[in-house]
Amino acid sequence: MLASGGPDAVRVEVLAKRLGVTKGGFYGSFADRDALLEAMLDTWERESTDEVLARVEREGGDPRTRIRRAGALTFSNHRLLPIDLAVRDWARRDEAVAARLRRVDNRRMGLLRETIGTFCADPDEVEARSLIAFCVAIGEHFLVADHGDRTRAEVLTRVTALILDA
């Protein structure tokens, strides 16, 4: 619901019906709608950041592989990506959500800085590459431009090679 309609689409009545419980039964799990939204944000943060970073560390690999894996797990995931984009939209209107998104983005940028820093010595370039990588990961989902005789996938492969010196 959050991914398809934003926070305004998250309605207790609709969720209770979908879950096959009464509205009263629903409130047995959550004090109110705000508690539900907070729990949704907790789940998003845990799944899209904590679990992704833990998996990247657990599966290891060279820095370039780790960056690619983190990006694929976060921004290619058909479940996580729409929620991530919905949270970004929500953060434009809610400072508490924006603060949480900032925390998540800072952790993601931290991984980029750390891994890019293993093959790029210039701190200014590390920051620039990290920002470009993050902006491409998010922004490419909003772009509808054509790429001449190249596919979007081909262009993204080239962008990745430029960022990662691959």
SSE blueprint and pairings:
Blueprint lengths: L1 H4 L6 H8 L3 H5 L5 H27 L3 H13 L4 H12 L3 H22 L6 H17 L12 H13 L2
**Ends apart, CA distance between termini:** 39 Å
Count of all domains: 1
Structural class: mainly alpha
Largest sheet: none
Query: Which spans have pLDDT < 50 for at least 5 consecutive residues?
Result: none
Rough shape?
elongated
Order of helices and strands: HHHHHHHHH
Rg (CA only)? 18 Å
Fraction in beta strands:
under 5%
Number of strands: 0
Number of helices: 9
Overall pLDDT level? 87
Tell me roughly what share of residues is in helical segments.
over 70%
Protein model, in words:
The chain has 166 residues and is mainly α. The chain has one domain (44-164). It has nine helices and no strands. The chain has helices spanning 2-5, 12-19, 23-27, 33-59, 63-75, 80-91, 95-116, 123-139, 152-164. The protein is elongated, with a radius of gyration of 18 Å. The N and C termini lie far apart (39 Å).
Give a quick summary of the entry.
By secondary structure, the protein is mostly helical.
List keywords for this structure.
mainly alpha, 9 helices, 73% helix
